Request: fold
Amino acid sequence: MPLTDIALTPALWALLAGIGGLLAVDGVSMPQVMVSRPIVSATIGGAILGDAAGGMLVGALLELLTMRHPPYGAAKYPDTGPAGLIAGCAYAASGSASIAILVSAVLVGWVIGWMGAYTGYARRLVNGRLIGRPEWLAARPRRLERRHRTTIEIDVLRGVVLTGGMLVPAVLVVSIVGVLPVGPVGTAVGSAAVVTALAASIGSGARTTAPDARAWAMVLLGALLVLAALWGRP
Reply:
């Protein structure tokens, strides 16, 4: 769907921002049904703007890139819910299937994901302040219940603000990239960049989750072979 055919009305913008808020809270609080994973959230964004398959492609690549960031404890990791939604929307809005569009949409999702990671870290600090007086909360258990609801509402609001604030800039950036001329060399370099980034992420994830595994070496070898094939194309 070309950008000129998309009417990003206040109602549609508000709908996407609201979905972003729900995706943000799914990753940490409730209902935790995995809709915040990028392969799902990006598909939702693509479907809303008319290209579910394109959104799924972007989400699949983001999914592979985030494999090296398992959500353990208080570790910082990309907030893939709003990021995937925005990346899927941006790809669908461009109306193109070029490698430049794909790379830029994935890159936009990656950057926004890390923005979400740091806003999530700030939210944890706020949560600590809200639950910082155990004796006061223990005196009346309903206080803890109310504070718990407040922390969830804060996270929903964080997702709404992040999605609403970054949606339009992301769509514009990816769409502008889509109208720039890209030659064969640029296509090959873009393809190589995607393959190399995926290989590095998967390899790093394999080393993180299974230090004795050697799967990362095979992934890297495959990436090098694909790079060589792309580089030799006319």
The chain has a mean pLDDT of 76.
